[in-house]
Amino acid sequence: MSNRDLDATIEFRNVSFHLENGSEILHQLTLQVRRGETLVLLGRSGSGKTTTLKLINRLVTPSQGELLVNGRSTLDWDVIRLRRIIGYVIQEVGLFPHFTVERNIALLPRIENWPANRIHTRVHELLQLVGLDSQLASRYPRELSGGQRQRVGVARALAADPPILLMDEPFGALDPLTRADLQREFCSLQQRLQKTVVFVTHDMHEALTVGTRIALIEAGQLAVVHSPEEFLNSRNPMVAAYLDAFRTDVKACNPRGTR
What we know:
This protein is an alpha/beta fold. It contains eleven helices and ten strands.
């Protein structure tokens, strides 16, 4: 076993996934997610990115192949324990509307029977970590802006200090300025926390901004896995098509393009 194998927190070994009607969503995916990195899954809608995330926390199971988390097959994990080492952040946030911000963030620590004073301290620590005023703890999700709700969603995912974070288009529903702010803050947060992150997006700029590596998935198959620098210089035809579309979009908004 190589050093790289030992350093893999998540490993897909020839994983395929089929729907009940036989349709193949993922085809023989072989991929390693290294400890402490942010691996971006980039691809168009329907390419299999979200299914890949759901396989990691066993919302679905492989039709073929094997998926390992911390060296153990997901099928051998107790599913509750598996999900408690994984934070999950989605585009719609999924906060409970009848819970306050504090109660939303404290959900998993309460389930884990943390002492009340530890939960209170952790909630306010996390609010500060994600850039929110502690006075927001008593508010309800409806009283927050979209960006604030998304920050609370990140705080809730981090509440029990999971080593792994799954993020599915987490900033996709936000306006461009708020989205850019949260991308920068996520990068700063990740530099401090060094979580193992799998981040799904279809946005090229976001992938290049937040990713340690970028895995391009097309029609359920892995095309390439590159660093952002390698991605920008890749001669792979699928990568070139994405880069051309990105540059064309920039020029459409700015006829002189960017330098």
